[in-house]
Here is the input.
Amino acid sequence: MLNIVETIKKIAFEIENAIQTEDLGYSDSENSSGEEQLKLDVKSDLIIEKAFTNVSSVKALVSEEKKGVMEMNPNGEYTLCYDPLDG
Here is the structure.
């Protein structure tokens, strides 16, 4: 579980950096709920997915921004469900 918490801290810093340094207006796509996505939503989701790729305790990710389940580690214990920006 500690690896998950440490990864979340790193993700927060990466998203904060993206907010400060990138153009993150609206994108040309919709999320799984049919809402127009901000580029920040898309970027945040990619940051989160990449960060948890090597966390062995994470079995899968479920994001509001994507349809379906993203399988990560078949031997993991946890499935994390999230909205990249809203929690």
Observations:
- Residues 2-82 form one domain.
- Residues 61 and 70 are 5 Å apart (CA to CA).
